[in-house]
Each structure stands twice: as C-alpha cells, then as structure tokens.
Amino acid sequence: MFQSYQDISDPSLAAHRVEMLRQRLKELQLDGFLVPRADEHLGEYVPAYAERLQWLTGFSGSAGLAVILPDKAAIFVDGRYTLQAAAQVDGKLFEICQLPQTRLADWLQRHARRGAVIGYDPWLHRMAQIKAEKEKLASQEISLTPLAQNPIDEIWQDQPTPPRGPVQAHPLKYAGRSAADKLADCQAELKAAGHQAAILAAADSVSWLFNIRGHDIPHTPVVRAFAIVHSQKKPELFIASQQLSKALREKLKTVAILRAPEKLPDRVKALAEKAAPVRLDPMLTPQYFAETLKQAGAAIVQASDPCLLPKAIKNSAEIRGARNAHLRDGVALTRFLHWLDCQTEGVENGALTGVDEIAAAQKLEQCRIETGKLKDISFDTISGAGPNGAIVHYRVSESSNAPLVGGSLYLVDSGGQYLDGTTDVTRTVPIGPVSHEMRRHFTLVLKGHIALATARFPEGTRGCDLDPLARAPLWAAGLDFEHGTGHGVGAYLSVHEGPQNISKRGTVPLKPGMILSNEPGYYKPGAYGIRIENLLLVTKPAPISGGERKMLGFETLTLAPIDRRLIDVALLSEEERVWLNDYHQRVASTLAPHLAPKETDWLQEMTAPL
Ligand code: ZN
Ligand code: ZN
Questions:
Q1: What pLDDT does residue 15 have?
Q2: Ligand showing the shortest atom-to-Cα distance for residue 502
Q3: For 128-159, what is the HEC assignment?
Q4: pLDDT grade, residue 12 (50/70/90)?
Q5: Which ligand is nearest to the CA of 518?
Q6: pTM metric for this prediction
Q7: What is the distance in A from the centroid of ligand 1 to the CA of 360?
Q8: 517 pairs with which residues across the strands?
Q9: Cα 228 to chain center, whole Å?
Q10: pLDDT at residue 236 above 80?
Q11: Any idea of the CA torsion for 344, 558, 498, 96, to the nearest 10 degrees?
C-alpha cells in the first residue's frame, strides 16, 4: 500500500530539539534561523531527510516555515493548516501564526532585536521569497544571511540520507516528444532571448525535459536532478551515476553531459566566464544559485523556467494517455463507490456503517492497485467522514480515523499515478438519509462545477477570469469556499503543476492542451464538506453555431458518477440537467464494459437520467 495512517508527529520531542538548535545558533553567533518545509528542488513533496520542519516542530503539513530566535519561536502556516498546526505543535514553544495575516517580516520586526542576523539555508528558499523578506526587513536593520551548512543537519542524529534510487526512462509513446526535440526548443528560446543558459532546479521540469522518472519522493515520480541548459552547447545533467542503468546512461549521453551532483557548484560558477546572462526562475530556483552566480560575477536574468509552458501544454500522446488513465481510474473509483454503497446501504440516521475513513481509503487504493497499472497514488487520499470532510487538507491517521455514520456526508479526494497519466478526483457521497440543507449545498457546488465545465471563452482568457463562474451559484446564496477552483496537473508527474490555475491568482492564459482541475466546494466547519472534482482538458478554438468567433472550451476527462441522490433537481436549470445526464451517459457507456455485472447494474441506476 502507498499510504500510511500512522500519527507521524510527536510534539513532546520538540523542546529538546529546539534547545539543541538554539545552542548551535549561539555557537554560530546567529540571532535566529529559518526552517522551511522544503528540499533543494522546492517541490510540494520532500524526501524524509528534508522533513526538518516536522522534525523540529512536529508539524507535518505540506507548507510551513518556523523561525527560531534565542528566546522565542514561531511557525507560519496558511489557512489550510492552522487547525493541524495547533494540534501538532507545542504552543508553549512556538507561536502559531496564520499567513497571510501575520507575516515573517512583521513577526521578526516585533520580536528580533535591531541589527539581528538571521541565518537561512540558501538551498531551501525561493529567490523571490528571500528578496521579499530582505526588502521588508531592511528598515529594521535585520539581515538574512545564507549559511553554508544547515544547523539542523548538524544536530539531527538519525537524519535519513538523501535518496538516490534508480531512474527510469519515460517511454516516448507516453512522453510524445523526444528529449532531443524538447531540448532543441528550449535552446532556441534561450538563444532568441539572448540568455547564455538556464538553470533548472524544479525536479518535474528536469524529469519532463529529459523524459526520465524516479521513485525517491512519495506520490510524485520525479527525479531529483538539476540541469544547466546552455543556449549554444550540450546541456549538463547532474545525476548520480549509480541511479542510471547502463542503457539509460548511454541514452542520456546522446543529449547531455552527465555529471555527478557534487560538480554542480563549480559548473554554476563557471557560467561567469561568459557575459550573457543566466536565466533563473525566481519562483522555482533556490537562492543558492543567485548567491553563487553573484559571487562568481555572472549576470542573472529573472524569467520563467523555459519548461513550464511546454510541460503544461500536453501533446497528442500525453492527451491520449490522460484519456486512457482516466478511463482506468474511473473504473477503479466506480468499483469503490459501488462497494461503499453496498456497505452503507439502508443505514439509518446516526447508525454506524462498519466502514471508517481508513478502511475506505484502503479499499479505494486496493481498487486502483487492481487495475494492474498503478505506480503510486498521486497524493495521500483525503478520506473525510462528516466533520472531517470540512477540513480541506485532511489526512486521516489512526488517531483521527472516524466512522462513516448514517445521515452524514463522506468526501473522498484521491488520485493515481499511471505511466500514461496522473489523476485527481473528488466525490462526495451520502451515507444513509441526508438533510435538505446538504442537498441544497451540494447542488449549488454542482452548478458551479457545471458552469466551469461548459464554459466557452476566447483565447487569452486567464484562470482568474473563469474562477467566478464556479463560485457564482454559491455567491448568489451568500456562500463561498476558501481554496482555488483548479490547478494544473502533470503527465505522470506532479498532481499540482503550474503555471496555469483557476483562482484569483490565475494570471496565465489557458491554452489548448492544458489540463486543469475543476473542484469547487462548500465546507461547513464541524459538520460536513462538499467537493466535486473532475479534471478538464482545454480544447482547441472551435466555432459556435450562430456565433462569429471561435472559442476555447473544456473536455471533462474524469469518468465517475456524481451522486444524484444529493442533487435537488428543482435547483438545476434545463441546461445543467442536460449536461449532467449527458455526462452520466458517457460515464456509463465508457465504464460499463470494464465492470462486473453487479457493478454495471449499480452504475446504470446511479447514472439514470434526472
Ligand atoms: Zn483532488
Ligand atoms: Zn485537485
């Protein structure tokens, strides 16, 4: 199984560790130290050795930052994680600060002395982050100083070693384009822009560019490698030779110079030999590279990672793969939903069903494993019964595990990693009889989901332009949800990838071939959560009958029933009802050939026209 349900944090260990860190900072003559949750590639998931924030504080969320001063400490988390941080972190040791209301610089201005020197590990912070903090702190004469050695690594006795597992070639039939072709495009772009080279730190960019995949990070099949792509000469790929088979080494050698990871610092410094600027993406590159280039005297230009857009715009092989992966994943999810329905059938209000959150998540993972093609789940399944469904980033553990009870809603957000694609899907299902209010809220979320799924829009439309479509039915009812409506999704890569997204911050125009999620929700704290999530493919501009301009649109990739027992049909417009019926017709006819007779019968019922 790919998911563990152990309670992974122990706040009682924090006091001693914080004390050891303070002692070390004193020896280093530092007034403080920043501890982010990050590794050198700045991705969403990190290997065990990089879980420094969790080791120090007990907090196990995917984003957060601690700051340690001689007599005070704080941890900064966003709204998704304030409850979790309060539960996992010792409040006597750390002040828990919510972003964006309380920011690091404001807190330091209040608690650090004037002239304080705060250390940080330049490998673990984005260039943009360090720049922003430095600017805010300058007026207080508080300085941030990069350290050559991370003090936590010096005191963490049984720190795991960085993983360097085997790397696989990602077959051309799934990648759609060869590494040589992708590199040629990338180099042409650098040349046209007058850039000497680009340094690639994002593991998904490097993995995409060289058509390689790895298994060193949970749920994300990236290879933790760096690359320097020169505009005029062969790219350099930094990867440990023991990670490559002889065949893959020979294959990669045709497109890149392979170097040991230890050689990276010298090769970065060598970029100072030429006058043309080195391209760094300030959002995706550790401050280390900016510092090293600056010291060596190299010119820097800040621009987006050249792999971002071509990686986001899927080619025809990747689109074919995504459709196949979604068919397979839809079969697995539908089999799970059928099983769940059998377990909870006829349960009365308040009665136990015999299923709990962990049992459900395990069954769902089992259904995905039974496809025979699952490489990993794409993230820890969010399996939220009743009130736990209202915690947007809920991770079920043995201590939080709750039973599914009659009269409640169950929210399950999950996905699979397959060689041909990455999936991400959420369904909300009724356990026994549910209230009118639950059905009304579910229907409002569904209306927003349909509004986005059916949107037509001109070229140049950005995610932020579409975001209100998914919220309007909720807004009209005086409701909203506190997360983005959609994120980009990789092709057997990260389940969350940029640069596009559908949210207030989505300023990147949507292009045909991009894959995004459509996941509006509604959350009633302490009671229940609702989310309906399908993945969408942006389709090519096409004419509209009676119209004058071609418009882009979406194809829904995800195939699984949306629970019609939760729909208040009276709240749907005729068009919405037709969309749902058509979608369900497609779900039933596509999935049925792959299901057992009992499952098919059930699916027919669940997708019968409204
Ligand atoms: Zn999801
Ligand atoms: Zn999602």
A1: 93
A2: 2
A3: HHHHHHHHHHHHHCCEEEECCCCHHHHHCCCC
A4: confident
A5: 2
A6: 0.96
A7: 16
A8: 535
A9: 25
A10: yes
A11: -10
The neighbouring-strand residues paired with 383 are 412
Contact predicate 399/345, CB 8 Å: no
Number of neighbouring beta carbons within 10 Å of residue 37: 23
How far, in Å, from the CA of 380 to the mean position of ligand 1? 10
Q: How far is the CA of 69 from the centre of ligand 1 (A)?
A: 37
| Residue 8: per-residue pLDDT | 66
Token pair in block for residue 546? 């009676």
Within 10 A of 110 (CB to CB), how many other CB atoms are there?
A: 11
Q: What is the distance between the alpha carbons of residues 79 and 159, in angstroms, rounded to a whole number?
A: 29
Residue-wise pLDDT tens digits, 433-464? 999 999 999 999 999 999 999 999 999 999 99
Give the helix ranges, DSSP H, for 166-312: 172-175, 179-193, 203-209, 246-253, 264-269, 287-296, 308-312
Of the listed ranges 9-18, 211-220, 487-496, the one predicted with least confidence? 9-18
| Tokens 């990669």 found at | 252
Expressed in angstroms and rounded, the spacing between residue 241 Cα and the centre of ligand 2 is 35
Cα 439 from Cα 570, distance rounded (Å): 11
CA distances to 386, 500, 510 from 118, in Å = 44, 34, 41
- Alpha carbons 268 and 298: distance in angstroms, whole number: 9
Q: Is 170 left (phi over 0), alpha (psi -120 to 50) or beta?
A: beta
> Domains in the chain and their CATH numbers?
11-155 (3.40.350.10), 168-311 (3.40.350.10), 313-597 (3.90.230.10)
Q: State in Å: Cα 559 to ligand 1 middle.
A: 14
Could you identify the residue written with the tokens 């990190």? Answer: 46
Q: How far is CA 370 from CA 227, 421, 569, in A?
A: 37, 17, 35
What confidence score (pLDDT) does residue 11 get?
A: 74
In this structure, which ligand is nearest to the CA of 484? 2
- Can you give the pLDDT at residue 602? 98
Residues with CB under 5 A from ligand 2 (ion): 424, 517
Residue type at position 337? L
| Residue 91 alpha carbon to ligand 2 centre in Å | 31
The number of residues in the chain equals: 610
Render the burial of 52-70: b for 16+ CB within 10 Å, e for the rest.
bbbbbbbbbbbbbbbbbbe
Which distant-in-sequence residues (6+ apart) come within 8 Å of 468 by Cβ?
475
Ligand nearest the Cα of residue 412 is: 1
Q: Are the C-beta atoms of 87 and 103 separated by less than 8 Å?
A: no
